[in-house]
Amino acid sequence: MQENVGGAERAVRAVVGPALLAWGVVLLPEAPSPVPPVALIVMGALLSETVITKVCPASALVGVNTAAPG
After folding, report:
1. Claim: this prediction has a pTM higher than 0.85
2. DSSP state string for 45-57
3. Is residue 33 part of a domain?
4. pLDDT tens, 24-61?
5. 39 phi and psi, to 5 degrees?
């Protein structure tokens, strides 16, 4: 796939992704249901993955491209 995640968006994802991941891990042992913490972990992992690969399939699906042309 073509890169579609630009610099500013990557910076935000680099902060929010690990924060969601950590939040889910912290909540998991005490949660009455594991679904919400696991959802946070998955969202955080996906955001973190897009920082590394510079590709977001969801953005590609709706036609959003914040990467610099070239």
Report:
1. yes
2. HHHHHHHHH---H
3. yes
4. 999 999 999 999 999 999 999 999 999 999 999 999 99
5. -60, -40
Q: Is the dihedral of CA 5, 66, 42, 18 positive or negative?
A: positive
Is 4 within 8 Å of 66 (Cβ atoms)?
Answer: yes
pLDDT confidence band for 69 (50 / 70 / 90):
confident
20 is in which domain, residue-wise?
7-53
Residue 62 lies in a domain: no
Contact status, residue 3 vs residue 67, Cβ threshold 8 Å: yes
Cα angle 62-66-67, degrees, rounded to a multiple of 5? 120
Name the residue type at position 8: A
